[in-house]
């Protein structure tokens, strides 16, 4: 056996069920950026679509096209980081709805669409300053959007923003700015079908952040927030496993091959899961790690580097907390050369 990332699709679906139930009647969107947070977009989207998920959120157009192919023609696919005109054409051909946070980009979409009523979701900057139309430019922007909609070049399907989710006070301010923006858009004659503001953490905790649709990334895969509590009913879907490759006086060597992404600063601060429970990691090298021994350890034994804790391993968020980052960073850095195995 070589290292593998075992992805339990059933766990993703049951995590999704928990989230859907929690936010109803708001709708659930599965965010699949970064190859579905490293889990593999094709299989994850196909399984979710078969399970009744209707909305998919892809960062960029290439990921949106893959989500469309996996989800089939009836799903709604939303993509929010799009830049060039050729990309707009690809997105419209694949029936991808585009996030727009920039006036000149709206003109580009209208020009490429030319009468096809391209579905767009207009974005107000509610304080994060990560693209989005500034509040002082919003009235002119929505007036122009209404004009382009009347002409049949675009259809404003959504209005949205993104929030920091680092403090309730900041989020509350963003929410107030979002409500203002909705009013101004409606006064301009726009009737967006979906209003969406929050990602995992705020939407899970705070009902008033759910609006019509919630963009759930991390929690869908069982990745809790750094510093956040365990989530009732939500389990990590991925387990990274690797074999014991040698046993010596200095410890047990575990070969993962391509785990170039596991930060070496985790050495001494993390444990992995073994048949005998957790064992401290002493050293992390480019292709293997050295861990504490246990009686009966043998070459070929399977070790869990991270996962739901079945063998005593930690979650990616617990690893991340040891070095001051977020769980997403640990999991998306697992090399694409490590095969994903679906169960
Ligand atoms: C990544 C992202 C999300 C999902 O965030 P999670 O915290 O992983 O749920 C939602 N919306 C946007 C715009 C994002 O970039």
From TrEMBL:
Positions that bind substrate: 130, 289
UniProt modified residues of type N6-(pyridoxal phosphate)lysine: 33
Stored Pfam families: Ala_racemase_C, Ala_racemase_N
Ranges annotated as spanning the membrane: none
Chain coiled-coil ranges: none
SUPFAM superfamilies listed in its UniProt record: Alanine racemase C-terminal domain-like, PLP-binding barrel
UniProt-recorded name of the protein: Alanine racemase
Protein species of origin: Microbacterium schleiferi
